[in-house]
Amino acid sequence: MEFAQITHPAPVPGETRAQAIADPGFGNVFTDHMVTIDYHADRGWHDARIGPREPLVLDPACAVLHYAQEIFEGLKAYRHPDGSFALFRPHVNAARMNASADRLAMPHIPEDLFVEACRQIVLKDRDWFPTVDGGSLYLRPFMFASEAFLGVRPAREYKFLVIASPVGNYFKSGVPAVSIWVSRDFVRAAPGGTGAAKTGGNYAASLVPQAEAIAKGHDQVVFLDAVERKWIEELGGMNLFFAFADGTVVTPPLTGTILPGVTRNSLIQLLRDEGLTIREERYSIDQWRRDAESGHLLETMACGTAAVVTPVGKVEGPEGSFTIGSGGPGQLTGKLRERLVAIQRGQAPDPHGWVMKL
């Protein structure tokens, strides 16, 4: 599919852009352009274009506003030492978007079209790559039901878009490890629900407990399972790993209530490359406390596209608090982060073919 190129009438001036990307934070600054592709049940995907980032015009009866048919992805583009640009495992993001589409009764977007849309915006807005240390270009592909109707059924019209945001670190610099609040009153997802889909409704459900965590002085909230309220699932937007003194590592299994993270999958492979035993099995909040207090648990790490790999230092809930290891970064967490970032940024060999040069 050819992408029509629409000229931007008033791109951000270079001096203003340079100021914006010098210290962009996360998710607050956006590039000049966006990709848009339309879908109709009778025509399929059509009218691919890249043009100015601008407000969307939606009918008040637009289906997404009433029935929440919406899914999205998140991935990063990196600048390599030779000046080239690269994406990290974009086809995995494309496949996950289609898995989300299945759950929300939405059409698949061809994986190659998804990847090409990401490539188009990176190359178009290459001047927006941030100069801050560790900076990257965060891409947000998303799809929503655009048909105007009132009636509970899957829509027949959709839009797929990609916007881009120059970003620095997800968590503020200088924080050695994040602090976690255990949510006892709220759950993120239930069996048979949409927990494995990357859809906005899941994140909407996490906002009250996340606000509760922040009000109590913590960085993130961890959710337990919806049935027994004892098994650790994930954070508001990150998967978890637990590293033990016997050299084994555990991560909660993908049972339909946890998002199958791309970073999670990558870390499982890197752990195997290290010769460590990685088990995908249930792990309870009570066991987490006991293992931390006994010293059997050495490290807990959170991972996701935005934050990459982040150490968890403290956990608190209504029953009290406990500390992981020394409360700071652990050796394995640091090693995995360094290895993953080096591959993403073209500073180390890519034995698994994860990096896609643009």
From TrEMBL:
<dbReference type="InterPro" id="IPR043131">
    <property type="entry name" value="BCAT-like_N"/>
</dbReference>
<dbReference type="GO" id="GO:0052656">
    <property type="term" value="F:L-isoleucine-2-oxoglutarate transaminase activity"/>
</dbReference>
<comment type="pathway">
    <text>Amino-acid biosynthesis; L-isoleucine biosynthesis; L-isoleucine from 2-oxobutanoate: step 4/4.</text>
</comment>
<dbReference type="Pfam" id="PF01063">
    <property type="entry name" value="Aminotran_4"/>
</dbReference>
<keyword id="KW-0028">Amino-acid biosynthesis</keyword>
<protein>
    <recommendedName>
        <fullName>Branched-chain-amino-acid aminotransferase</fullName>
        <ecNumber>2.6.1.42</ecNumber>
    </recommendedName>
</protein>
<dbReference type="InterPro" id="IPR001544">
    <property type="entry name" value="Aminotrans_IV"/>
</dbReference>
<dbReference type="GO" id="GO:0009099">
    <property type="term" value="P:L-valine biosynthetic process"/>
</dbReference>
<dbReference type="GO" id="GO:0009098">
    <property type="term" value="P:L-leucine biosynthetic process"/>
</dbReference>
<dbReference type="GO" id="GO:0052655">
    <property type="term" value="F:L-valine-2-oxoglutarate transaminase activity"/>
</dbReference>
<feature type="modified residue" description="N6-(pyridoxal phosphate)lysine">
    <location>
        <position position="198"/>
    </location>
</feature>
<comment type="pathway">
    <text>Amino-acid biosynthesis; L-valine biosynthesis; L-valine from pyruvate: step 4/4.</text>
</comment>
<keyword id="KW-0100">Branched-chain amino acid biosynthesis</keyword>
<dbReference type="InterPro" id="IPR018300">
    <property type="entry name" value="Aminotrans_IV_CS"/>
</dbReference>
<keyword id="KW-0663">Pyridoxal phosphate</keyword>
<comment type="function">
    <text>Acts on leucine, isoleucine and valine.</text>
</comment>
<dbReference type="GO" id="GO:0009097">
    <property type="term" value="P:isoleucine biosynthetic process"/>
</dbReference>
<dbReference type="InterPro" id="IPR033939">
    <property type="entry name" value="BCAT_family"/>
</dbReference>
<comment type="similarity">
    <text>Belongs to the class-IV pyridoxal-phosphate-dependent aminotransferase family.</text>
</comment>
<keyword id="KW-0808">Transferase</keyword>
<dbReference type="GO" id="GO:0052654">
    <property type="term" value="F:L-leucine-2-oxoglutarate transaminase activity"/>
</dbReference>
<dbReference type="InterPro" id="IPR005786">
    <property type="entry name" value="B_amino_transII"/>
</dbReference>
<keyword id="KW-0032">Aminotransferase</keyword>
<dbReference type="InterPro" id="IPR043132">
    <property type="entry name" value="BCAT-like_C"/>
</dbReference>
<dbReference type="InterPro" id="IPR036038">
    <property type="entry name" value="Aminotransferase-like"/>
</dbReference>
